[in-house]
Amino acid sequence: KQEVTQIPAALSVPEGENLVLNCSFTDSAIYNLQWFRQDPGKGLTSLLLIQSSQREQTSGRLNASLDKSSGRSTLYIAASQPGDSATYLCAGAGGGADGLTFGKGTHLIIQP
Amino acid sequence: DARVTQTPRHKVTEMGQEVTMRCQPILGHNTVFWYRQTMMQGLELLAYFRNRAPLDDSGMPKDRFSAEMPDATLATLKIQPSEPRDSAVYFCASGLVVGDTDRYEQFFGPGTRLTVL
User: Fold this and answer.
1) How many angstroms separate the CA atoms of B92 and B88, rounded?
2) pLDDT per residue over B59-68, tens digit each?
3) Which residues have a Cβ under 8 Å from the Cβ of B17 and sit 6 or more positions away?
4) How far apart are CA B51 and CA B26, in angstroms?
5) Which residues of B are less than 8 Å from A45 in CB distance?
């Protein structure tokens, strides 16, 4: 059974800093890894999807990487802004099942 | 603006009552998922459908939960009877699978916040 772990659980940094959020998974048969953002009381917004044949994806100030051999993915946020404050969730699908297995998330606060 | 919609957004009910949650997937998407989010367990998969056929409902308590897709534009999740431990946010998500690929993006609805008293 796939298990997804995210560290740190919470992070607070000053505005303008570059930061990295970490995600690890136990089953290297993963074929999709998706990063989401969740604002308080809201749904999930898909940020980036990395397919197993890919190593990274970029969207604006966000860059996500996937290393299946080590069971890790990272989400890099450049030049952080207060509007980036949210919970970031990592989720993977694989092993013949389409449903996503989620980490518990990283609660990110960007201080103005 | 294509998005997944869910109704109701909030539901407060008493223990023992039936609860029905509805989801309209993005038009043209052929795979629909139900997830549940709680503080303790985080997000968990309950069930999912491909082309309206159930593929996996192993995450769902079978004695009280049921999920159906009456048509391609509607998915329902029912709880009967509801219990306080069912209090959670229930999310619907949809995606499009083309050909043999399993590699596709899932898009989530805003969720139904259920409180069972």
Assistant:
1) 13
2) 898 899 999 9
3) B81, B82, B116
4) 13
5) 108
